[in-house]
Amino acid sequence: METLLQNEIFMTAAYYSIAMLALLLFLSIFELVTSYNNWEELKKGNVAVALSTAGKILGVANIFRHSIEQSDSMLIMLGWSALGFVLMLLSYFIFEFLSPSFKVDEELAKNNKAVGTISFILSVGISYVVGACIVAL
User: Fold this and answer.
1) Pseudo-torsion of CA 17, 20, 25, 28, nearest 10°?
2) Among candidates 46, 69, 54, which has minimal Cα distance to 23?
């Protein structure tokens, strides 16, 4: 086992596999907290939902990037990634709270591209902040 943990190809495959599984889990959690069916909206060609989803994927991937670079173990990498995901989720709720004149989920379901773009930028922006925190620690 020690030899495998020193093999770069094995470690790359391991980090990739863990990141993909966690990404699927994180996207499933986002699916649970939204009032619309993400995959049905994508199937319909809803660009706003596509932007929002792309921002979440890019944001989570960016957090994983920093977590992998700065962690000594997969467990620590997963811890940082989970914290980053929680912060991204929290920022989604804050976005909803700070827009009292409309509901973010409803606007995304109505294909409001402006809301989708802001959601995209918010997810990616938060991932940069979390990534900077991971690097700094």
Assistant:
1) -150
2) 54
Q: Residue 84 has which token pair?
A: 């980053």
The model carries a pTM of 0.87
- Residue 74: partners with Cβ closer than 8 Å, 6 or more residues away: 14, 15, 18
Q: Which of 80, 95, 82 is closest to 34 using CA atoms?
A: 95
Query: Helices 47-70 and 8-33, interaxial angle, to 10°?
Result: 140
- Residue type at 50 in one-letter notation: A
List all residues 6 or more positions away from 50 whose beta carbon is below 8 Å from its beta carbon.
42, 116
* 3-state SS record for 17-60: HHHHHHHHHHHHHHHHHCCCCHHHHHHCCCHHHHHHHHHHHHHH
- Show Cβ contacts of residue 112 under 8 Å, excluding neighbours closer than 6 positions: 48
Domain locations along the chain: 2-136
Which whole-number Å values give the CA distances from 126 to 74, 87, 95, 132, in the listed order? Answer: 22, 8, 12, 10
For the stretch 34-80, pLDDT in tens is 999 999 999 999 999 999 999 999 999 999 999 988 888 888 888 88
